């Protein structure tokens, strides 16, 4: 709950601001300073899929984020009840979302608990942020 800040060296310094789903109403106040967006979805909680999809569509339709690269992380793949990337793409209708979006969109499976996918996330950040900032 709330907002958390973390600085990463990619090798340039990048600040990651975490804003939980309950903070959705204030997300737009941060769009202007956003160079990349990571949108995390709980892949082990099917009851949140529809609200996550609505939030994602809201973010993708924001004018200030029209050209900001987006990384969608389907997290919690370490849990036995997680939905696979294929299932999540289907539930989110990702093919339709990607075809209509103005931003480049990348999707990955991750586990914040055991670190699965973290290397790929950091590579995406390095490639996406490059020398911007």
TrEMBL record:
Residue numbers binding GTP: 21, 75-78
Organism listed in the record: Pedionomus torquatus
Gene: Arl16
A UniProt-annotated Pfam family: Arf
Lineage: Eukaryota, Metazoa, Chordata, Craniata, Vertebrata
Record keywords, A-Z: GTP-binding, Nucleotide-binding
Protein name per its UniProtKB record: ARL16 protein
Signal peptide extent: none
Top-rank taxon: Eukaryota
InterPro entries in alphabetical order: P-loop_NTPase (IPR027417), Small_GTPase_ARF/SAR (IPR006689)
UniProt xrefs under Gene3D superfamilies: P-loop containing nucleotide triphosphate hydrolases (3.40.50.300)
A GO molecular function held by the record: GTPase activity
